[in-house]
């Protein structure tokens, strides 16, 4: 990059390069000079260089170079000569706009030149071939080649200028002018996309302006001039948005205006508020928000009536009629019926937001929020006197739709008024913000409201009506439209109506759509027919070899499916765990970075805040000292002036005293002067007191004379008024007598008419009374039958309960008797067993005694000289008989012991034989008792069965 000793050399070098056709090199040379740090002191040569620089940027369509150069030039002349930057920017925008217009005019001229009958005369064959192949028109091609690049550059120019001037308090006017030019560019060429971007850019500029409040050259929105510029920009944005039919962007512009006013806590002028509410009426009408549209009209009416002094009576009447018709166009029911809780909360927030926009509360408080509704709107219209300003047709249709009850001819009465209202409207002469009012736009909404009112009133009178009759009662709508309106009203719980096209009737009232018994009649019929078919044609069951072979296939498939699902869930869990781990690591890293950044920012903010506080305190202290010194000097000068006037010597030399001395001298002088003034005032008050007392003493007799004269005059006036009242009463009495004589002639006709009306009403009353008595008697009969049925049911339930209770008591008594009987049998059995055992013991004792005696007899009868072999030969028989009797084998060595000594009782054969016999008897007793228990059990079961049959 070449360096220049002086800026003039760079300008000369650029002009030389331009003359030889090297514009790019010239632009680079100027760009290097402007961005260089050597030339940061502003001078007039730099301004000429910037003019040449922006010309080159426009010629070559280099928006980026232009932006860089303007930013650097802003840094140079921000504190020295800001007007130079303004001139350069204006020149830049003028060149870009001029070149864009020139390209558009050339394209238009080319299009007009090509609009001839013979295309081959003015075009080459390849151009015609390209036109037919690509399907483009000449205008599209010329626009794309010539106009579009310059329009892009112009749009980039506007964005660049707005970006440079966004935070410059010294060039607020230029910023507003650029925004207005950009709005007009979008409006002229129908650039809706660029308009949305432009609105977003301006919105972001304001947000950043509020976000970063510590900037040096930040505009002060509290200043009236700055606020007015920002407001004018927003209102121009609102106007262009409505003209381009960008209603969403228009609503956001309304919110921008309201947010700007809330930011500065100030309400705009009435002239701007009129535009604000006029655009709100259009936005809400396009969005079908009729309630908010009516509220906006009411606000607009109040503003026009209060602040527009040039408003004529005709214009006021049209605006008031629009307010009333807009209020009547609101749906009479709440469209949020049956909505979910989330939808209701969103609707509530939306209502609060729109209420703040309509009410224009710069400091909205929750307790002061009014609920926007149709009923409150109509009551507010009456309270504010809007109904007194409307036309006769609007007033009549209001009374018909809101207070009248004409179920049969409501639509026929409303239709003439709708015809007249559709012709009302026109341009307003004095309300510039509302150029035209057309009441015909409310006719469809009024027709819908008329239909709803008619259906509501008819449902209160009739229960059933033919469709043809109902359609004939609504002449301005087809029955399909009426049906659609009725469905919407039923959906929102406004009326209850059922339309039966098969019967050709309409049913009013809360009737069920179908009875409970017939709700599922089709499914019941299908099931019954299926059973009948299965009974007639029984299905043949064929054995399937494949089914037998693969009987376990569903279980295998189910297990495999479960295994795959489990494996899939495990894989998903692993993936989720891995993702969660990665997210946690990223989150920790991000939190660590944010924490470090936050610590750095907080430290920087604390340093800046402390520095700012220190400078602020120093400035405040310095200002306080300067102010005190100025006040002391002023007090000293005043004291010196007063002392000079009075011919006194000056108090003290000003160079030899301090500030504190000056303050004390000035205060002492003020105190002395105040005391002298109080003395003068006391003397003057005393003098005034004497003068006032003397004046009152002189005026007292004159007041008495005037009072007496006034009494005489009022007495004469009273007598004259009384005489005139007597004459008027006499004349009025004479007229009343004549009127009575005239009306007495028609007394007979009056009595005849009265008797006719009374008889007709008496007959109607008797008929209604008779119908009422029949209805009451029918209700009494039905209720009597219901009571009888209920009484029988209660009696039957009571008897059934007594019977069940009696059966339960009998069962419990039987169980108790059975238990007692079982206990008695058990006791008897035990006693019998004890008795048998006792007898057995007695018998055993007797047998033992007998055996003992027998053994003693045998031993006594045995001879003493019996040989050994004889004794030995006789022993085996004795021993052999013992085992046969006792059933047990005795060894030989025990046999010798038994012969030598008598056996004990527990080992004697007699005792063992007795024990065996006792066991045999016990077994026999058990065998004998089994049939007895079976007989008893059978008898008991027979008894129970017979008893149960008797109870049945």
Automatic annotation (TrEMBL):
Keywords, alphabetical: Coiled coil, Cytoplasm, Initiation factor, Protein biosynthesis, RNA-binding
Domain PCI: 322-513
Residue runs in coiled coils: 568-697
A single BP term in Gene Ontology: formation of cytoplasmic translation initiation complex
Spans traversing the lipid bilayer: none
Gene Ontology cellular component terms for the protein in this record: eukaryotic 43S preinitiation complex; eukaryotic 48S preinitiation complex; eukaryotic translation initiation factor 3 complex, eIF3e; eukaryotic translation initiation factor 3 complex, eIF3m; multi-eIF complex
Comp. bias (Basic and acidic residues): 806-859, 917-931
Descriptive protein name: Eukaryotic translation initiation factor 3 subunit A
Naturally occurring in which organism (per UniProt): Heracleum sosnowskyi
Origin organism lineage: Eukaryota, Viridiplantae, Streptophyta, Embryophyta, Tracheophyta
């Amino acid at each position: 990059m070449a360096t220049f000793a002086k800026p003039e050399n760079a300008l000369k070098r650029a002009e030389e390069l331009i003359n030889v056709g090297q514009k790019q090199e010239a632009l680079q040379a100027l760009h290097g000079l402007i961005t260089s740090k050597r030339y940061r002191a502003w001078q007039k040569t730099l301004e000429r260089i910037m003019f040449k620089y922006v010309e080159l940027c426009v010629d070559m369509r280099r928006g980026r170079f232009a932006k860089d150069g303007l930013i650097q030039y802003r840094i140079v002349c921000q504190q020295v000569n800001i007007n130079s930057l303004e001139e350069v920017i204006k020149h830049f925008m003028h060149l870009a706009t001029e070149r864009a217009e020139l390209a558009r005019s050339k394209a238009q001229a080319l299009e007009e030149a090509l609009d001839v009958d013979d295309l081959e005369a003015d075009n080459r064959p390849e151009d015609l071939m390209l036109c037919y192949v690509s399907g483009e028109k000449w205008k599209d091609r010329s626009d794309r080649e010539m106009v579009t690049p310059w329009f892009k550059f112009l749009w980039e120019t506007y964005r660049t200028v707005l970006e440079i001037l966004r935070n410059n308090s010294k060039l607020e006017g230029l910023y507003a002018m650029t925004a207005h030019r950009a709005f007009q560019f979008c409006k002229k060429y129908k650039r809706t996309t660029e308009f949305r971007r432009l609105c977003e850019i301006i919105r972001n500029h304001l947000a950043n302006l509020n976000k970063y409040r510590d900037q040096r050259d930040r505009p002060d929105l509290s200043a009236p001039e700055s606020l007015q510029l920002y407001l004018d920009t927003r209102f121009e944005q609102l106007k262009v948005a409505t003209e381009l039919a960008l209603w969403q962007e228009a609503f956001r512009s309304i919110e921008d205006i309201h947010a700007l006013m809330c930011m500065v806590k100030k309400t705009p002028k009435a002239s701007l508020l009129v535009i604000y509410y006029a655009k709100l009426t259009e936005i809400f009408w396009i969005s079908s928000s009729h309630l908010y549209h009516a509220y906006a009209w009411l606000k607009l009416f109040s503003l026009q009536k209060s602040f527009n002094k040039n408003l004529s009576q005709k214009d006021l009447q049209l605006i008031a009629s629009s307010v009333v018709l807009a209020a009547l166009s609101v749906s009479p029911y709440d469209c949020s019926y049956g909505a979910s809780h989330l939808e209701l909360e969103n609707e509530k927030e939306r209502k609060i937001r729109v209420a703040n926009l309509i009410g224009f509360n710069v400091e909205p408080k929750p307790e002061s929020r009014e609920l926007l509704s149709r009923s409150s709107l109509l009551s507010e219209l009456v309270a504010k006197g809007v109904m007194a300003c409307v036309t006769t047709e609007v007033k009549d249709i209001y009374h018909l739709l809101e207070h009248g009850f004409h179920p049969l001819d409501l639509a026929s009465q409303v239709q003439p008024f709708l015809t007249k209202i559709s012709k009302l409207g026109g341009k307003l002469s004095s309300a510039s913000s509302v150029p035209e009012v057309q009441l015909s736009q409310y006719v469809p909404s009024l027709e819908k409201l008329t239909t709803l009112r008619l259906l509501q009133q008819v449902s209160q009178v009739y229960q059933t009506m033919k469709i043809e009759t109902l359609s004939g009662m609504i002449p301005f709508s087809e029955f399909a439209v009426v049906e659609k309106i009725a469905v919407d009203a039923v959906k929102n719980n406004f009326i209850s109506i059922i339309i039966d096209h098969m019967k050709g009737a309409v049913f009013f009232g809360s009737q069920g759509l179908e009875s409970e018994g017939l709700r599922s009649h089709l499914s019941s019929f299908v099931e019954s027919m299926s059973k009948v078919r299965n009974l007639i044609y029984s299905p043949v069951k064929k054995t399937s070899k494949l089914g037998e072979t693969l009987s376990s296939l569903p279980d295998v498939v189910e297990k495999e499916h479960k295994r795959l699902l489990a494996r899939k869930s495990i894989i998903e869990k692993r993936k989720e765990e891995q993702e969660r781990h990665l997210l946690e690591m990223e989150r920790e890293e991000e939190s660590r970075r944010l924490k470090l950044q936050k610590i750095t920012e907080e430290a920087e903010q604390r340093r800046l805040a402390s520095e700012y506080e220190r400078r602020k305190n120093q400035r405040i202290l310095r200002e306080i000292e300067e102010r005190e010194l100025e006040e002391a000097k002023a007090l000293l000068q005043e004291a010196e002036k007063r002392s000079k006037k009075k011919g006194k010597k000056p108090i003290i030399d000003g160079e030899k005293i301090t500030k504190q001395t000056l303050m004390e001298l000035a205060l002492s002088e003020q105190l002395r002067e105040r005391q002298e003034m109080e003395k003068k005032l006391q003397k003057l008050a005393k003098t005034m007191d004497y003068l006032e007392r003397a004046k009152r003493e002189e005026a007292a007799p004159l007041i008495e004379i005037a009072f007496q004269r006034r009494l005489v005059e009022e007495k004469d006036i009273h007598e004259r008024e009384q005489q005139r009242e007597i004459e008027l009463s006499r004349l009025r009495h004479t007229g009343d007598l004549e009127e009575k004589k005239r009306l007495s002639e028609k007394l007979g006709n009056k009595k005849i008419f009265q008797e006719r009306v009374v008889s007709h009403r008496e007959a109607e009353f008797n008929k209604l009374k008779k119908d009422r008595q029949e209805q009451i008697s029918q209700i009494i009969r039905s209720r009597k039958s219901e009571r009888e049925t209920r009484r029988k049911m209660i009696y039957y339930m009571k008897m059934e309960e007594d019977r069940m209770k009696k059966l339960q008591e009998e069962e419990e008594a039987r169980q108790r008797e059975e238990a007692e009987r079982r206990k008695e049998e058990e006791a008897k059995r035990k006693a019998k067993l004890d008795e048998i055992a006792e007898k057995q013991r007695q018998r055993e004792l007797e047998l033992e005694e007998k055996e003992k005696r027998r053994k003693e007899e045998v031993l006594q009868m045995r001879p003493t000289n019996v040989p050994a072999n004889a004794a030995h030969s006789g022993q085996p028989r004795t021993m052999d008989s013992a085992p046969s009797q006792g059933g047990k084998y005795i060894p030989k060595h025990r046999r010798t012991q038994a012969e030598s000594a008598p056996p004990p009782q527990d080992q004697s054969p007699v005792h063992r034989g007795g024990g065996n016999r006792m066991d045999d008897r016990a077994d026999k007793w058990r065998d004998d008792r089994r049939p007895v228990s079976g007989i008893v059990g059978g008898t008991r079961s027979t008894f129970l069965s017979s008893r149960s049959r008797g109870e049945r």
